[in-house]
Amino acid sequence: MRILVADDDLVSRLAMEDVLLRCGPVEITMVEDGAAAWKALEAGAFFDLVCLDIRMPPPDGLELVARLRAAVAWRRVPVMLITSTADRDTLLAATHSDLQGFLVKPVGADTATRICRVLEQLDASVLEPGAKATARLRIDAARHARYVAAFKLQVEALSGRANELAQPGAAPATRLAFIQKAEGCRTAALTLGALRIEQVLADALEAVQAQMPGAERAVGLAVYWLGRVTSPAR
Fold first, then answer.
1. Coil, strand or helix at 46
2. Chain-centre distance of CA 167, in angstroms?
3. Where is 102: in which H helix or E strand?
4. Do the Cβ atoms of 14 and 105 come closer than 8 Å?
5. For the segment 91-121, what is each residue's pLDDT rounded down to a tens digit?
6. Residue 5: strand pairing partners
7. CA pair distance 143, 102, nearest whole angstrom
8. How high is the pLDDT of residue 21?
């Protein structure tokens, strides 16, 4: 997994790194403020989880969450806020931000347990676990694997169409083809229990229909998440 941590305190960053390394194979990007975190996202990196200190040089954690949720390209990126005090005002400010939770400083062994649980839940929402999916769909494991492989190819092809749309002068036919394929991918996502993929595709579809930017990044995120959870190494 790829995890982005933004905190202006060096000791806190090092402590978070130690905690995250207990959660299995992870690639951690550490930055010291909100501006650097935003720059890392804009540079094109995909992340499974973003951990943001609430109080840091602007944009602070809450401001950065608001910025993420307002942009199609990063609307679905999971976020946990890091705070020294989970006071009432902070909790209220974050209530409608679709967060994965709070991490209260100082972090420790229980923090690793919480984060590991969150990461497991995130993976299950990217793609429903095989045993659960086969029981629900009443198919065997081999057929489920074929469904997943076909779905992955569909999403990758959709990403190519999204990239074409992002180019200047994209033809109306390209836009129409994207819309049609995106609807098909959303149906397949719901069939396979890929709930977060369906949400990302819905965002991308909304952006294309409104002729807004960000669809290619949103679909790219879906490709990254789906590719990681279906990796042979898993």
1. coil
2. 24
3. strand 101-104
4. no
5. 666 666 788 988 888 888 889 999 999 999 9
6. 30, 51
7. 39
8. 94
CA 109 centroid distance within chain: 25
Read off the amino acid at residue 128.
Answer: E
Taking residue 26's Cβ as centre, other Cβ atoms within 10 Å add up to: 16
pLDDT digits (tens, 9 = 90+) for 21-61: 999 899 999 999 999 999 999 998 999 999 999 889 889 99
| Contact between 186 and 201 (Cβ < 8 Å) | yes
CA-closest candidate to residue 205, choices 165, 145, 146: 165
User: What's the rounded Cα separation, in Å, for the pair 210 and 231?
Assistant: 34
Q: Which helix (H) or strand (E) holds 82?
A: strand 79-83
Say which amino acid occupies 162: A
How many C-beta atoms surround the C-beta of residue 143 within 10 A? 12
Tokens matching residue 57:
């040089």
End-to-end CA distance of the chain: 11
Q: What is the pLDDT of residue 233?
A: 64
Q: How far is residue 234's CA from residue 232's CA, in Å, rounded to a whole number?
A: 5
pLDDT single digits (tens) 142-190? 999 999 999 999 999 999 999 999 998 888 999 999 999 999 999 999 9
Q: Give the tokens for residue 10.
A: 């060096």
Tokens 């294309």 — which residue? 208
Q: What is the pLDDT of residue 231?
A: 87
Tokens of 162: 């999204």
For the entire predicted model, the pTM comes to 0.92
- Specify the residue for token string 């194979």: 25
What is the length of the chain? 234
